[in-house]
Amino acid sequence: MLITHEGCSPTIHPTAYVAPTATLCGDVRVGAGCRVLFGAVLTAEGGPVELGEGGIVMENAVLRGTRRDPLILGRQVLVGPTSYLTGCRIEDEVFLATGSRVFNGARIGTRSEVRINGIVHLRTVLPADSMVPIGWVAVGDPVRILPPEDHDRIWAVQKNLDFPGYVFGLDRPADGESLMPAISERFGRGLGRHSNDQQI
C-alpha cells in the first residue's frame, strides 16, 4: 500500500521490489535493487525514510523517519523480521537481526551487527565493525555494550540521554508522576496528521 502523507509520496526504484502487503507512507525512498517484504511498514513522520541500494527490509519490520531525525539506510543493509527502527542512520553493509531495535538519533557504523533482539539506544553511536550480542543493549557515545540484566549501568548512561526530552520535548516527571498523559496528547496530536493521508 502506497500512501501520500503531508504532500509527499513514496518513490520506488524500478529495480526494487515492494511486497503487496507492505505499507509505504509519505516521503519514503526505496533505492535500486531493494526488497521490502510482507507486512513491513515504512513511514515518514515528518522526516524521510531512505533505503540505499540493495537494502532488504524483512517481514513486519517498522521503519520510521522523524522531523528531528530522518531514517537513512546505507547500501546492502539487512533489517530482520519484526525489527523497529526510528529516526536513525545506518551505514553500509550493516546486519540488523530479527527483533532488533534502533532508536532516535542513533548511528550504526559500516559492517556492524546487531544480533537477535539487540538494542541500540537513543543517540547512541556504534562504531564501524561493532557487534551487539543477542539481547544486549548498546547505549551512549562513546558506546557501552551491556547485558540486559545490567539495568543500573544501562540507566546510568541512558538517563542522561534524556529520552522524553529528545523524542517528545518533555521534562522527565517527578517521582510518583506519569509522563504518559503529556506523551499521549503530544504524540497523538502528531500522529493525527495522518487523517488527511491518501492511498495512491
TrEMBL record:
<dbReference type="InterPro" id="IPR050484">
    <property type="entry name" value="Transf_Hexapept/Carb_Anhydrase"/>
</dbReference>
<dbReference type="InterPro" id="IPR011004">
    <property type="entry name" value="Trimer_LpxA-like_sf"/>
</dbReference>
<protein>
    <submittedName>
        <fullName>Gamma carbonic anhydrase family protein</fullName>
    </submittedName>
</protein>
